[in-house]
Amino acid sequence: MRPKILEPLYYNIQNISGIGPYYTSLIKNLVGDRYKDILLHMPTSSIKRKIINNVLESQINQKIIFTGIITSTWTTYKKPRMSIATVKFKETNISIIYFNVKKIWFEGLFKKGNELAISGTLQKRNSKYQIVHPDYVENNIKTRIPLFETLYPLTKGLNKNKLSSVIQKVINVLPSFEEWIDLKLIKSKKWPKFDEAIKSIHFPRNQKSLDQYPIFLERLAYDEALSRQLALNLIRVHKRKKIKKAKNSKAFLRKKLSSLLPFKLTKSQNNVLLDIYKDLNSNEKMSRLIQGDVGSGKTIVAFFSLLYVVESGYQGALMVPTEILSQQHYNFFKKYSDGLGIKIELLIGKEKNLKKQKILSKVSNGLVDIIIGTHAIIQKNVKFKNLGLVVIDEQHRFGVYQRLALLQKSPDADFMVMTATPIPRTLILTNYGDMDLSIMNEKPLNRPLIKTITVNNNKINDVISSISNSLKNGEQVFWVCPLVQESENIDLIAVETRAKSLNNYFPNQISIIHGKMSYEEKENNLNQFIKSQKPILVSTTVIEVGIDIPKANIMIIEHAERFGLSQLHQLRGRIGRGMKDSICILLYDKKLSNVAKNRLTTMKNTNDGFLISEKDLELRGPGELLGTRQSGEQSFRILDLNTHKDLVEIANNEAKLISNKNPKLLGSQGSALKNLLYLFDQDKAVELIKIG
Ligand code: ADP
Ligand code: MG
Question: Ligand 1, residues 270, 300, 442: which to mutate, most atoms within 8 A of Cβ?
């Protein structure tokens, strides 16, 4: 249950007087509608005002506060309608100017002979002083006009004063919490208490609080990092505590497979497999992330792992994001399964046909050893006889709690995820901190060179004539058309148009695939490419993940400037897999933004996916890198993964310590930390601890 002290922070702002449903819905869309959402909505800049005793040239463009007497008012009739009040301040006249305000409101506020306190930016025009749309017009300086004020991201219909009034109300009920951060760290960083940081950031009292803003913000960013790392580490410990039967295995199938393979495993592949076998052979459930660059050979690692559980008398499942990829993996496994004497099946699509029913019943009767497919294989209607391992390949969109749910579903199943592309360490910590990590940092030997060049789009004809030479040498080409918009229909046009124009040069040599095709069509067209009947494949990014056609050695990416770095790296990863030296041609439009230039240069300079992923985080931000922008899985309110990398590391170490020493969050330290988890909406972890 939620600690009582947090109750006020869960109140809804709708009950604040002067807010009501209209403003509530505006604020809700901006940040949320609970008190704590408001507290954690950070300002982006601040204003400093100065009370002045007389007008000086040096105050022009500064925010000033003064009191003066209204000497005249008038409103123009032509548009834009101006309402002007002249205010006498000492010996100077200052015009207060509004555009298009209600006359009745203006005349009610500015009455000739009244004394008013006014604040705004002083300007000089035609040697006269003026303030356009003042920030404050009050009867008394002391009562309302703040000397220091913060500005927030706003939304249409919501002004600063309205939001500030809500923040003030919320801060009034902010409790003082027991400290959850290690005191030594607090001291060394000179951080204030949580409530002090919040108060001072929203309502800075003096110059000193303004100056301390970065330190105060850093404390809150750390709080957010710690809450996330603690939640993930608690889940990790909790998962490990799930007891299962250790899987013992005699390695006869794996030995056989090694003898059948045309290559030897790399050192990296062997090391990762040792991690995996150790987990499978333990009483604790495996939950492991395998990180390897494109082409490092993850599929075969999955195969060996699945064989291990088959040898131990269990079934295994390999889940991939697309049907095309399922088919490819199935074909690869099929090459060896007969020799190994194991049964594998492919399960794709939603069709409720007889064949599918037959496969499902075989799976439930234990007549299938390994099942390969899309997420169809983890649906409710798929009952396993004794599932021992789930391998998820190239699947980023699976969040922490989805992974947990999957793991809890089958009592004896271990669980591993293979990432499509390297992920920077900070993102590993914030998004996969619930898993153990194995890294494959080596590619199979004798891989051919991949050269990357950038070519201006207006030289596309040169590219076409060079292709024509390559085709004569029996080479094969991927031609990728960009996402025009988030619309498959428009992509399809790009692909068809390009295929048509290339067809003029290379009649009957072009195959196409895009997302709008039926599975059969895709498979058929891809096969024509694989069998070299048609040596050019024009496609959308559907070929981005996992496709393995070692023969193809030329990759052309149109409008490469529109792609993100990790995506370009993934696409380029489709070549350089066979014997022939490979070339990646990035076609770009001449109107290049700086970021796009930076990306293309990075692509030219390096093939190292780990390096590229760091750069991508820097240029694009975490949401797009992980494809989680829509899922909302790891969006942080305060923490910035680029500037606060070190905080994430510190938080992770701290969270590891806590989750090992005090996994149930007992005692006073524990209850302080629970408050933190609730504050930053990581409380699902708290529920888990109780179950566990
Ligand atoms: P990833 O999924 O990591 O991008 P794949 O598993 O598709 O890479 O492997 C890429 C290619 O390398 C495949 O054709 C695969 O058969 C081959 N391969 C895998 N391991 C080795 C190895 N140790 N030596 C040579 N080739 C390998
Ligand atoms: Mg792969």
Answer: 300
- Which residue owns the Cα nearest ligand 1 atom 15? 297
SS3 121: strand
Establish how many alpha carbons lie within 13 A of residue 196's alpha carbon, considering only the half-sphere containing its beta carbon: 11
Which ligand has the minimum distance to the alpha carbon of residue 302? 1
Number of Cβ within a 10 Å radius of residue 643: 10
Q: Is the dihedral of CA 418, 424, 426, 431 positive or negative?
A: negative
CA 264 centroid distance within chain = 36
CA 89 to chain centre: 54
pLDDT tens readout for residues 624-662: 555 444 334 457 899 988 889 899 999 999 999 999 999
Q: Which ligand is nearest to the CA of 297?
A: 1
Q: How confident is the model at residue 442 (pLDDT cuts 50, 70, 90)?
A: confident
Partners of 536 in the beta sheet? 477, 510
Query: Residue 230 above 50 pLDDT?
Result: yes
The residues lining ligand 1, judged by C-beta closer than 6 Å to any ligand atom, are 263, 265-266, 269, 292, 294-300, 444, 546, 548, 550, 577
Asked whether 534 and 510 are in contact (CB, 8 A), the reply is yes
| Contact criterion met (CB below 8 Å) for 677 and 227 | yes
In contact, 662 and 669? CB cutoff 8 Å: yes
> Are the C-beta atoms of residues 615 and 602 closer than 8 Å to each other?
yes
314 vs 86, 286, 378, 412, 516, CA distance in Å? 87, 15, 16, 9, 37
Q: How much of the chain is helix, strand and coil, in % rounded to 5?
A: 45, 20, 35
pLDDT band for 60, please (50, 70, 90 cuts).
very high
As a whole number of angstroms, the distance between CA 307 and CA 340 comes to 10
What distance in angstroms lies between residue 335's CA and the mean position of ligand 2's atoms?
17
Tracing tokens 């809450």 back to the chain, one arrives at 227
Indicate which atom in ligand 1 lies nearest the CA of residue 269: 23
Per-residue model confidence as pLDDT tens digits over 325-368 = 899 999 999 999 999 999 999 998 765 678 888 999 999 999 99
Rounded (10°) CA dihedral 268, 272, 278, 284: 160
